[in-house]
Every structure is written in structure tokens, then in C-alpha cells.
């Protein structure tokens, strides 16, 4: 194989893998934000249950206050019942008393409902807090993995820069100029494999004469259509096909 072609294939590999690394690096902040959003969502679920508990407690205190007032009123009625003089007064007082007793019963029922609801809210809080804890641990693990990935990518990019300068030093200035010009115009992809008579990147059929030259890998040939530098992968047993 032509030495420049060999070097340019290698240069393309270095550039393409550095490109992938940079793209992944650019995705990391969004991945980190997504983790933070997940943590915030779980924390909000816990806060929501706590708010409902506080509201239920306030309602319960209000019910207890009302119940105490009703009980005071009832004992007042019972006191007055002893002092009534007429049957009519007695019946009226009895009606008041019965009404107060009914109110008390209904308040007591509601307090019981509240106690049951409080139990299920407490269970809900416990499970939300357990889920939060588990999620926080999982998120911490994922954050560590992202940090480690960032470090690895930075290291890969440093190695790629070194590999690039070493490879560039081995290419002739003319071949390098073609590579850089095509790469600049083609989103960094300057080298393409030719296979079955086609450029595998732009998929345009090569003229038979060009393809025959490309198959020899002994010169810098460019695709007529996309101008990429073409090479031919010689597979075992495929030679001469
Ligand atoms: Zn092409």
C-alpha cells in the first residue's frame, strides 16, 4: 500500500475516534442534568407527602378543638336539663342535647377516619423516603460513572492528539493537504472505503478504471462524487474477485 494512503487511513481513524469522544463529552452535561432532575423529582415526592401530612394534622387539630367545644356545650345542656320547669322546656332541651350528641358522634367518626388516613400517610412517607434514598444512591453511582467517563475521554483525547501529530509527521505535505481540505468540507470524514465498485460513504458507483486503480492501493485516488480519498480493503480470499 502507498505509504501516504496507509497514514491517511490511520489519521482518519484517529480523527473519527476523537470526534466520537468529543461528541460524547458534549452529551455529558445533559446526562448530569438529567440525573439532578431525577433526584429533584424523588425529593419533591417526599415533600408532597409531608405537605399532605401537615395539612391532615392541622385539620385534625381543628376537629379536636370543635369536639371539645361540642362536649362543653353538651355538658352545659345536661346541667340546664336538671333545672327546667316545664315539660315543653324539657323537650326542647332534650332535642338540643340529642343534636349535640349527634354532632359529637360525627366528629368522633371523622377523627377515627383521620387516624386511619394518618397511618396510611405515614406508610406512604416511609416508602417515598426509602425510594428517595435508593434513588440517591443509584444517582450517586451514575454520577461517579459519568465523572470516570469524562476522565477517560479527556485522556483518550490527549492520546489522540499525540497520535495525530505523530501520524501527520509521517504523511507527505501534498497528501496531508488533500486530506485536510476534504475533511474540512466533509464533516471530518476524508477517507472512504471503496467496495463492490462503490464509494461506501456517498454510495456513488466509481468508474471501472478508478475502481481498478483504487484496488491497487498504490496512489491517492479521490471519489469523483464526494472527493473522499478512497482505499480498498483487501480481505483474505477476496483478492481478484
Ligand atoms: Zn464518495
Provide a quick synopsis of the model.
The protein is mainly alpha-helical and 241 residues long.
Provide the gyration radius in Å: 41 Å
Q: What best-fitting shape do the alpha-carbon axes yield? A: rod-shaped
Q: Spell out the helices and strands N to C.
A: HHHEEHEE
Proportion of residues in helical segments: over 70%
How much strand? under 5%
Instruction: Compute the number of structural domains.
Output: 2
- Could you name the CATH topology of the largest domain? Helix Hairpins
What is the residue-mean pLDDT, rounded to a whole number? 95
Spatially, the strands of the biggest sheet line up as 2-1-4-3
DSSP E strands, number: 4
Class from helix and strand fractions: mainly alpha
Provide the CATH architecture of the largest domain: Orthogonal Bundle
Sheet having the most strands: 4 strands, mixed
Distance from N terminus to C terminus (CA atoms, Å) equals 18 Å
Number of helices: 4
Low-confidence stretches: none
Amino acid at each position: 500500500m502507498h505509504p501516504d494512503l496507509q497514514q491517511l487511513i490511520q489519521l482518519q481513524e484517529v480523527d473519527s475516534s476523537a470526534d466520537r469522544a468529543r461528541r460524547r463529552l458534549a452529551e455529558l452535561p445533559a446526562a448530569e442534568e438529567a440525573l439532578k432532575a431525577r433526584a429533584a423529582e424523588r425529593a419533591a415526592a417526599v415533600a408532597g407527602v409531608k405537605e399532605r401530612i401537615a395539612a391532615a394534622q392541622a385539620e385534625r387539630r381543628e376537629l379536636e378543638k370543635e369536639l371539645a367545644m361540642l362536649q362543653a356545650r353538651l355538658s352545659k345542656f345536661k346541667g340546664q336539663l336538671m333545672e327546667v320547669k316545664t315539660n315543653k322546656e324539657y323537650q326542647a332541651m332534650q332535642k338540643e342535647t340529642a343534636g349535640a350528641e349527634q354532632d359529637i358522634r360525627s366528629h368522633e367518626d371523622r377523627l377515627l377516619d383521620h387516624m386511619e388516613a394518618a397511618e396510611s400517610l405515614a406508610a406512604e412517607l416511609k416508602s417515598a423516603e426509602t425510594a428517595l434514598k435508593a434513588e440517591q444512591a443509584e444517582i450517586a453511582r451514575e454520577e461517579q460513572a459519568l465523572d470516570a467517563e469524562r476522565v477517560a475521554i479527556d485522556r483518550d483525547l490527549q492520546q489522540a492528539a499525540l497520535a495525530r501529530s505523530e501520524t501527520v509527521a509521517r504523511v507527505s505535505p501534498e497528501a496531508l493537504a488533500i486530506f485536510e481540505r476534504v475533511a474540512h468540507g466533509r464533516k471530518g470524514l476524508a477517507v472512504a472505503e471503496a467496495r463492490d465498485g462503490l464509494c461506501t460513504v456517498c454510495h456513488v458507483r466509481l468508474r471501472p478504471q478508478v475502481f481498478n486503480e483504487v484496488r491497487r492501493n498504490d496512489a491517492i485516488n479521490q471519489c469523483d462524487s464526494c472527493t473522499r480519498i478512497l482505499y480498498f480493503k483487501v480481505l483474505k480470499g477476496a483478492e481478484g474477485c
